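Before the break, one more example. Copy the sequence into your notebook; we will annotate it together after we see the structure.
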Amino acid sequence: MAVKEPYENIYIGNFIYTLGYLSGIHNASSEEAGVHLIQQTPDDKKWSDLLTRWKGKYFFFEFKREEKGCQQELKKKYCKKTCKDNCEDHRSTYFSKINDEKYADMKGISDRSHFLGYGVRISEARTIKFIPYSSVSDSDKQSKEDVLPLSDLCKKIINSDIGVNEKEFYKYLNFLSKCVDESAEGASGFVVNINQNGNVHLVDIKDTKILANDLDKPDKTYPDPQPENARKKTKTHRLGF
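Here is what the structure looks like once it is written out:
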């Protein structure tokens, strides 16, 4: 009987642990640094309001159980539950646009901030490798040219070797949202932010389309927000690394 690959949430947990562990080593002398898993409650403000309070570098991550599942992204549809199985209206135009010279700026942002992680076996163990999302190909095996092992990617994040600022990130989210029809749902994944104090924020986003739309609306309650407001309005879990 074939052994099934772990589900994506196992790999997500390993990613969070590794990022937190390496961040703790890198920021050992900082009393402010920590890893915060942000969980939204009905009383919290919109995610867009929280994201506007964080500075530093931003990233968007998606995960697959195994490498051969990556190619599914090329054919992904963002249908609602009411759509029929043969619906063709809600396919993403992302991959037909991202390598077009017209969107060269989006490609630059994507390659520094949007990654797809997939599970791999190494002997009897399992780990995660990452590729830039824009490089996904229609094959069981992805190009190894831009592959980053888990620890290497986390080190690049912590050292600010990759990532984009908030303006670039919001611009990219808006691009993602416009790659699907207005009546479709948006992509889901993890938003990661690391600020100048070494704080890592991780947010599970269910629909980037809603987030992108909200970012266009000013926050009337806190027009000049402070970081303390964001922390008071969220549940955070500090990992003791």
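The chain is about 30% helix and 20% strand. The longest helix spans residues 8-26. Try to locate both features in your own notes.
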